Amino acid sequence: MITIPIKDSDKVLSDEEAVDLASFAVSSCRTTSEDRSWIKEIVLRNDGRTSYYGYWEVAYLPRTLRGRRIQSKIVLNTFYLLTMDQLKKTLAHEMGHNWTTGYLISRLGRSPNESPPRVFYAMRGLDTKYASKGVAWQCLDREVMAEDYRTLCTSSRGDHRMANDIGLPSAEVKDYFIRMGYPRYM
After folding, report:
1. Which one of 4, 22, 90, 176 has the fewest beta carbons within 10 angstroms of its own beta carbon?
2. Nearest alpha carbon to residue 170 among 136, 120, 100, 129
3. Which segment of 17-21, 42-46, 138-142 scores lowest on mean pLDDT?
4. Pairing state of beta strands 39-45 and 54-64?
């Protein structure tokens, strides 16, 4: 089975749980070989009382003939994430960043700081001011995209954490993800 490396800095998972989490990232988050190749590792560590449960970060690799290449890392904060269900839900959201932002960078040549295409704002009823990092988490365009991915494209489809603020993603958003190139299980 194709897997994604798990680095459990604080040894909070058993070997079986680490395999389960890596398997979840591949199968339940419906990754492709392309977006899996972007992930260097998934890191579990106790970052203490912070403003995040997890985050996704990206670095650029040298450009090739096929375009911009990236390498990403997902960090899950085990201070807050105490159960496998919590880890998986946050991992599914961070995988949403990996796919949506990774796609915008690698295929559309956008920088990580550049806003998604305006059509996404229209579909989700967002204003362009939501591209700013100065607004609430649930209104940030990239966070909305990642959460839409989690609820539309992974097995972690439960509550959409922004539904009360902006509503649930529509079939139009799902179609948009398909047009972006999402090839599996949609």
Report:
1. 22
2. 120
3. 138-142
4. unpaired
Looking at per-residue pLDDT, the higher value among 130 and 32 belongs to: 32
Q: What is the pLDDT of residues 79-98, one digit of tens each?
A: 999 999 999 999 999 999 99
Quick check: 42 and 74 in contact, CB under 8 A?
Answer: yes
CA gap 3, 170 in Å, rounded? 31
Give per-residue pLDDT as tens, 21-75.
999 998 888 788 888 888 999 999 999 999 999 999 988 887 766 667 789 999 9
Read off the tokens for 118. 């305006």
Q: What is the DSSP letter of 47?
A: -
Rounded CA separation 110/68 (Å): 9
State in Å, rounded, how far the first CA of the chain is from the last one.
21
Counted residue by residue, the chain has a size of: 186
Measured distance CA(2)–CA(184) in Å, rounded:
15
Ordered by start, the domain boundaries in the chain are 6-180
Q: At which residue do the structure tokens 């439960």 appear?
A: 158
Cβ–Cβ < 8 Å for 33, 183: no
Q: Render the burial of 149-166: b for 16+ CB within 10 Å, e for the rest.
A: bbbbbbebeeebbbeeeb
